[in-house]
Amino acid sequence: MSVHEPGTPGETATVVAATDVRRTYHLGEPVHALDGVSLSLEEGSFTAVMGPSGSGKSTLMNLFGCLDTPDEGTVEIDGRSVTALSGSDRARLRGTEIGFVFQTFNLMPRLTAAENVTMPMVFHDVVDEDRRARARTLLERVGLGDRLDHAPSELSGGQRQRVAIARALANEPTLLLADEPTGNLDTETGAEIMDLFRELHDDGRTILMVTHERAIAEHADRIVHLVDGTLDEIEEVRGSKAASGRDRSGSEGSE
Ligand SMILES: Nc1ncnc2c1ncn2[C@@H]1O[C@H](COP(=O)(O)OP(=O)(O)OP(=O)(O)O)[C@@H](O)[C@H]1O
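Above are the sequence and the adenosine-5'-triphosphate SMILES. Below is the predicted complex in structure-token form.
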């Protein structure tokens, strides 16, 4: 199901949408972290969010990730209004519809790679052996089929992030949210992780990524620029790194 059914054949569906969202924090002087932002994510789109420190990027991610609700405006995920849900229903929606990738990986240190990947599957009715098989498939997908039983401390930074990406995919989420996914990696490893994101994008995943780095943002199809809690510009990334490797109706890469 989608927020808006496509009007014409071939038109892409909006799967996640924030409409005129406002979020004000009241610690002393009110801070308008988001001051009327609307942003829709089409199915299979890859969007980067950039902006100065304090411009509202994390606040927007928290709304899309069902970690917070707006004071005004609405957030809809796969046709469901997040704003109308109770805290526990929102947590369930978060567990089933959102996959999170963090700058600091956030793996459970005492669990193996495979066990980390099976953790989010509690939201689904999957028996143990199927979970293990699914974790294996996901870890193979991110190039770690030979690291299932390694602890995070036995993996490199790039490998840890790959485990985190496999974990984020555990429930076939509607939306993959990545907060500075290359922030703790060297340039080369960061580029490898972005290659993986590009592959996931090619597989049809819907991705929203916050980054400070222009070169990383250019892997997306468009860059959303936030300034002072407002949407300053949506920049289409022409011949983006994400698009360059693919044949997209033959229309890309000829500039
Ligand atoms: N829980 C909170 N309580 C009070 N103020 C907050 C809270 N979270 C964020 N803010 C304020 O809201 C504004 C937006 O913060 P936000 O974290 O969304 O920005 P950001 O663009 O992600 O910044 P950065 O790039 O530094 O992570 C900032 O002025 C921040 O100080």
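Strands lie at 14-26, 30-42, 46-50, 72-77, 80-81, 98-102, 175-179, 207-210, 222-227, 230-236.
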